């Protein structure tokens, strides 16, 4: 997720990486970088930026700025640009460096590489070529938003960025709307209002959280139903980096006629007990209530 590093906390007191950092073993290192506050960088990430043979980044200026903040020297190394538009051209050069026994540190714009970022093919091809691929964990906008959202975190689904076209976006929503999990998405600040309007067409009461500018000076978390949050967003949209989260889908009570029809169908080839168990499980109902209804239907027959 592309975000600028907020260096207000570190400009006066840069924290330099140790020049004595041990040279890493050959392999590809996927470095998580701050999503806002530059001080969220890990010590291990600083050591690798300081000691890796080859540096690669989705945005070379962002990585160079981050290294400057923390006093990490380039020492003659060049930062290779690797992003969606040049990945096919740059991958062979990085794979060749790995083949020659180099250690390569790759950083996305901000956050954890491969989470809505272009490093997937690089990591896949490196692994398929037999090179070691290492994670250097750290900040993640998706997980930071989940942590502060107040929504259930035992099961969650990350769905990336919505399509910009209206029809494709509605199909995208339909693909996950019924999933029994907290859903996490990234969205453009100018399109977030439209996304919530689409959600409100079918589930205006779905629990919704918008996290804006996480870990930065103007961090904001907006909570409510989809319709409530929609009303709080100005017509021109929001500013900054946005993460949108949706709670589990609303539980809709099944129509009794639908339950009766399903029981009648199953009891043609199943016992009353088994049919009641299947229907109760399928609709999320109390088994004893469904069993009582099944007995009533059987008696009428």
Annotation keywords:
single chain, 301 residues, Cobalt-precorrin-4 Transmethylase, domain 1, 3 domains, 5-stranded parallel β-sheet, 10 strands, 38% helix, rRNA (cytosine-2'-O-)-methyltransferase activity, 4pyrrol_Mease, RsmI_HTH
Description:
It holds the Pfam family RsmI_C. This protein is α/β, with parallel strands linked by helices and 301 residues long. The chain has three domains: 113 residues, Tetrapyrrole methylase, N-terminal domain (Cobalt-precorrin-4 Transmethylase, domain 1); 105 residues, Methyltransferase, Cobalt-precorrin-4 Transmethylase, Domain 2 (2-Layer Sandwich), CATH 3.30.950.10; 45 residues. Helices cover 38% and strands 16% of the residues. The strands form two sheets. The chain has a five-stranded parallel β-sheet with strand order 3-2-4-1-5, with helices on both faces. The chain is elongated. The chain starts with 26 loop residues before the first strand and ends with a helix.
